[in-house]
Amino acid sequence: MKKHIFLIYLEKVYKNFLLAKPFQRLSLLNHSEGPEKREVPQPFRRYFLPAKPFQRLSLLNHSEGPEKQEVPQPFRRYFLPAKPFQQLVLLFLIFMTNFLFAEYPDGNIILKQIDENMYAKNMISTSQMIVHGRRGSRTMEIKSWTEGENRSFSEYLSPPRDAGTKMLKLDDKLWIYNPSADRTIQISGHMLRQSMMGSDISYEDMMEENELTEVYSAVTIGDENFNDISCWILELTAITDDAAYQTKKVWIDKEKLIPLKEERYGKSGKLLKTTEILEVMKIGKRWYPKRMIFKDVLKKGKGTEFIIDDIQFDVEIPESRFSKAALRK
Hints:
By secondary structure, this protein is an alpha+beta fold. About 25% of the residues lie in helices and about 35% in strands.
């Protein structure tokens, strides 16, 4: 994280200096006053404030032979001091900048690798959802069928009071069948933010099945251990208007390329929910969550635990499964 702080500091220096015109760089050196004055940190004044244009050009033609160093194009215009010692300092700083920026991989590439690992064309799963409330816990068993990003069907198998409850998602529409009332209702608008079966998961969360790269752009902002596993830290920013969360902060297992921890934030920047994956499993060449816990930070309780007992990828699912008629069968 210290290196990340240094990058922020270096970026601040670049902004102060790169935005200045040649005569403004002279003003910086002479500490002139007025609206055009820009402050450059003291350590950089010695090397990066040449007084005359010909001095900036001299570095380009200063040395020949095997020791001649190539200066990257963006630096030629601004950082071309006249003396060899200054040239050496400049090249060292260029090298350190490239090294530090290259330390963290591209966040969007990591995001794509996560999609490739976790998403499948079709899947069928059986899972348990354990809601840890203030007065105790209750466990529900669910069977789900998913086809791509736009179609899914879930049926609650137990306990008896919830058995027979079914949910159908088609594109951005969601229907729920309540067997006790023998009634099907459509969930839409603000109702999507409501708790699903009293859990910490909302209907909106359940519908968030798109590949991450279609909804977010990512920047790698650091690395640290989570549960003794080395992780990249990604900051995700929504690129679509209908994203459930404006930003996310995600800890990615460097080896398995699976999210182990996630913080979800609203448009105001307020933390809304957290997710932690406590156990993973390997199915073929794919790593997938086995046991995870969701927590709505605005809600009392110990969170909702989700355990996948069985999952099959890329299996055939009958077309009739994704129909409103299937809700009443």
